[in-house]
Amino acid sequence: xxxxxxxxxxxxxxxxxxxxxxxxxxxxxxxxxxxxxxxxxxxxxxxxxxxxxxxxxxxxxxxxxxxxxxxxxxxxxxxxxxxxxxxxxxxxxxxxxxxxxxxxxxxxx
Length: 109
Prior knowledge:
Blueprint: E1 8-10, E2 15-17, E3 22-29, E4 34-40, E5 49-52, E6 57-63, E7 65-70, E8 77-80, E9 84-87, E10 92-97, E11 101-107
Antiparallel strand pairs: 1-3, 2-3, 3-4, 4-11, 5-10, 6-9, 6-11, 7-8, 7-10
């Protein structure tokens, strides 16, 4: 796992979601691809973070751990640092972060 991205442009304006419980920055690569680097603050089952996708996304967990439900899944799955999960385009996923989670969202569409 690489610890950094080289030769990229970073959009200065942050993406703030859920009243600041998730904040990310967009990173643009010379080949036109984009990723977001972000942080999710701890949440509870009563107040999860629910995201919508427009393209396929691969969420790479850098630190922390979270439970994730993709689309209408009844059983969530625990993801920890070093693991990734995929979310199809035009879908949703729900996250309950057990602690602060650093992530990279690879926009693959």
